[in-house]
Amino acid sequence: MLKNFSPDKMLTSPFGITADQLRKMGKTTVLTDLDNTLLAWDQLDATDEIYNWFRILEEDGIKVMIVSNNNEERVKRVAVATKIPYLAKAKKPLAASFQKALADLGSTPEETVMIGDQIMTDIFGGNRQKLTTVFVRPVKDTDGFATKFNRFMERIILKRLAKKSELKWEDSL
């Protein structure tokens, strides 16, 4: 059961992930959460770091999509500004959003990485779909109300994972 919640990698930030690293792993597609993965949950606009990372990945042939549980207005604001496709109200960890994202991008689970800051939604959902999962440190130490319970459960899971595995925080894939 714990395996379902175990990420393949734990990174301090998604921005250290490069197209070369992804290709060496046989990956061509990145699905990424938005809130507290790429920018603070209460920050409205994308940062230069987000723009640059998306641009570099896409120029190097990596397909990218934002898959977020947040509302349409919130996710669309960042996605349109960065010219990245998106799915809002994704209802992660349910399978439908992951399957739709893969279908929209013409990708398979084997060639896809899911990046997110929550074990209960991003990692669990990605693992259930057989994606490579990358757990990142949240951008901000605080969360919206809906995320607080998930963070409580996450702390319990991470303590158990630490006892059973070699996972540790790293700077790159």
UniProtKB/TrEMBL annotation:
Q: Which InterPro entries match?
A: HAD-like_sf, HAD-SF_hydro_IA, HAD-SF_hydro_IIIA, HAD_sf, PGPP1/Gep4
Under Gene Ontology molecular function, one entry of this record is: phosphatidylglycerophosphatase activity
| Xref: Pfam families | Hydrolase
What the entry lists under NCBIfam families is as follows: HAD-SF-IA-v1, HAD-SF-IIIA, YqeG_hyp_ppase
Protein name per Swiss-Prot or TrEMBL = YqeG family HAD IIIA-type phosphatase
Give the source lineage, highest ranks first. Answer: Bacteria, Bacillati, Bacillota, Bacilli, Bacillales
